[in-house]
Amino acid sequence: MEPTLKHLSKEDIHKIAAADDFHIAPYREDGVTYGTPTWIWSVEVADQLYVRAYNGSKSRWHRAAMEQKAGKIVAAGMTRQVSFEPVAGEINERIDEAYRKKYKGSPYLDAMISKRATAATVRVK
Asked: Taxonomically, which superkingdom (predicted)?
């Protein structure tokens, strides 16, 4: 299924954030071929969709997302072509809270709200 060429709607963001099946595939260096889809966590804050790299900014998908600025996601039964932008600043406190709420009880939560992962926060749009 080819991805839809549009930014995510608020409805899409709500559906994606409520699900736990988010796969990200930034473009490869050629800017045409998608990388291998990687399952990651996603959260919603103020009608925006955010993801973080568990292994920080050295993560392969994160490096590709920051270099290529675009790719596709597959989540909540949807495939979408999207763009990626880095996130920094106070919004990360709200993103931390969203991770705590959505993934409460997970043994991976502390890593996802660590400085390493926070430094690799990405807005998906």
From this structure: Bacteria
- What domains does the chain contain, in order, with CATH numbers? 4-124 (2.30.110.10)
Contacts of residue 64, defined as CB under 8 A and 6 or more positions apart, other chains included, come to 26, 27, 28, 35, 71
Q: Long-range contacts of range 88-96, CB-CB < 8 Å, 24 or more positions apart?
A: 88/121, 91/45, 92/118, 92/121, 94/45, 94/46, 95/43, 95/45, 95/50, 95/52, 95/121
The pTM for the full model equals 0.93
Residue 98: pLDDT over 70: yes
Q: What 3 state SS string does the chain have? A: CCCEECCCCHHHHHHHHHCCCCEEEEECCCCCCECCCEECCEEEECCEEEEECCCHHHCHHHHHHHHHCEEEEEECCEEEEEEEEECCCCHHHHHHHHHHHHCCCCCCHHHHCCHHHHCCEEEEC
Q: Which two tokens stand for residue 63?
A: 């490096």
